[in-house]
Write a structure and sequence with these properties.
- This protein has three domains: about 1-80, no CATH class; about 100-265, 3-Layer(aba) Sandwich (Rossmann fold); about 275-430, Rossmann fold (3-Layer(aba) Sandwich), CATH 3.40.50.
- The protein is about 30% helix and about 20% strand.
- It is built from eleven helices and 19 strands.
- It has helices spanning about 1-10, 100-115, 130-145, 155-170, 220-230, 245-255, 290-300, 315-325, 340-350, 385-395, 415-430, and strands spanning about 15-20, 30, 30-35, 40, 45-50, 75-80, 120-125, 150, 175, 190-195, 205-210, 230-240, 260-265, 275-280, 305-310, 330-335, 355-360, 375, 405-410.
- Helix 2 (about 100-115) packs parallel to helix 3 and helix 10 packs across helix 11 (about 415-430).
- The chain starts with a helix and ends with a helix.
- Zinc ion binds near residues 41, 46, 62, 64 and 71.
């Protein structure tokens, strides 16, 4: 009986795949045929061509939301209404830290946004402590019995948020859901999940927070935008968080379509390190650029730890290899997304086992190392847009004692992206 009750609860707010035989009257077909050989998927709302995605002459499937399991025209869906069946603790916030005056001001604004059920963007520079600013609003929503989703495009961010949110709200149910590794879903007042997983919910959340709304794969992905819109209730609060809002958000702000709060100071109150630009004038084939080598040698002698960002896996391997020839005693290695030892290498760097890490953009965001200088090799590469360069620069100066870490962009030309990144950092530093 107890288990059945829990099972029924677990369905609350969910979109569940079922068969034709299910006697539930609210079931509806997963895929609906449209004119001209087209069909619409009712889980993700994407439209595709039947003959392109046919398995047999009678059977076709949706290619867009395949990652959640194959949905065919023989499947049915049931959307279970959200019950908001929570035991609400009187004092949900168990975090006892303090906010800076700037953080506090934004925290109050967010409580107001939640009261008014609005959409709002928080533009908070890297290392400013944006998670803590959400706590008062979350506590307010919990007391009101609201169901809350904290979502991010990437699994790493969810994994990092999960223990922090659990620690800050010890008496509230918090569950974690994403496609990697073991994670057990249960009906909880707070859900931390990747944006993809929101497709498993329908009109479930009163408050949804979308972290890193400017990052891959959420950006320019209609499926994931749809996932967010479907997962929230009709009357909802939606908070976007970003350190580097994409031009689309900035345009919405400029046109008055989206309200926002700006936190341009790090929690320690110091400026963001301003990148220096170094023009590369000569690049000889198959050897390390002299200017780059000179900068690295200086850091090596000072025993200053650093990250060197490059634009491809090949470059990461190549430069690390050349460095090994030129400076055999420099403790360094390379890392990239496909590296099976990625996790261990990053941890070893964190533990001071390496002085330097040559990396692709995988370490562009979401990682915090203390007292790190940052260099970008070939910053004029098309792989580095302004947002990426700002995020990379944000890896430096994370602690109060070392807020003046260096950031250097090496490039053959001063691109628009480099210009925009440097200007934006300068502007954020000037704003009071
Ligand atoms: Zn679909």
């Amino acid at each position: 009986m107890g288990d059945n009750l829990q099972e029924t609860k677990d369905l609350s707010g969910r979109l569940i795949v079922t068969t034709k035989d299910n006697p539930q009257s609210q079931k509806f077909p997963a895929l609906i045929s449209l004119a001209n050989d087209q069909f619409r998927c009712q889980r993700c709302q994407m439209v595709n061509c039947q003959s392109t995605y046919s398995i047999t002459s009678q059977l076709f499937y949706c290619p867009e939301c395949l990652v959640l399991g194959r949905l065919t025209n023989q499947d049915y869906l049931i959307a279970y209404p959200e019950q908001n069946d929570f035991v609400v603790p009187p004092h949900p916030l168990t975090w006892t830290g303090t906010l800076t005056p700037k953080q506090h001001a934004i925290s109050c604004q967010l409580c107001q946004v939640q009261m008014n059920k609005q959409e709002h963007l928080v533009w908070a520079v890297t290392g400013s402590g944006k998670t803590e600013m959400l706590f008062a609003m979350l506590a307010q929503a919990i007391r009101q019995g609201e169901r809350i989703a904290l979502t991010a495009p990437r699994v790493d961010v969810c994994n990092e948020l999960y223990p922090r949110i659990k620690a800050a709200f010890r008496t509230t149910g918090v569950s974690l859901l994403h496609g990697q590794g073991a994670n057990h879903y249960y009906y909880s007042q707070i859900l931390i999940c990747t944006v993809h997983q929101l497709l498993k919910f329908r009109a479930a959340f009163d408050l949804l927070i979308l972290d890193e709304c400017d990052s891959y794969p959420y950006v320019n992905n209609p499926l994931l935008h749809q996932a967010v819109q479907q997962a929230v209730k009709k009357r909802h609060t939606l908070i976007y968080l970003s350190a580097t809002p994409s031009p689309e958000y900035q345009q919405q702000i400029a046109q008055g379509q989206l309200n926002y709060s700006l936190l341009n100071r790090r929690f320690h109150g110091h400026d963001l390190p301003e990148p220096q630009f170094r023009l590369i004038w000569r690049q000889r084939f198959n050897c390390l650029n002299k200017q780059l080598l000179h900068s690295i040698t200086t850091l090596y002698q000072k025993q200053q730890r650093f990250l060197l960002f490059v634009d491809s896996i090949k470059q990461a391997e190549f430069i690390s290899q050349l460095l090994h020839q030129e400076l055999p005693n420099l403790q360094q290695t390379f890392v990239h997304a496909k590296d099976p030892l990625r996790g261990q290498k990053v941890q070893a760097f964190r533990d001071n086992q390496w002085q330097a890490l040559v990396t692709t953009t995988i370490l562009e965001r979401g990682v915090t190392f203390f007292n790190i200088d940052v260099m970008v090799w070939q910053a004029d590469s098309h792989r580095f847009n302004a947002q990426t360069l700002i995020q990379i620069a944000g890896r430096a100066g994370r602690s109060a004692e070392h807020s003046d870490n260096q950031v250097i962009f090496f490039a053959k030309q001063y691109t628009l992206a480099i210009d925009q990144a440097i200007r934006q950092i300068r502007r954020l530093n000037q704003d009071e």
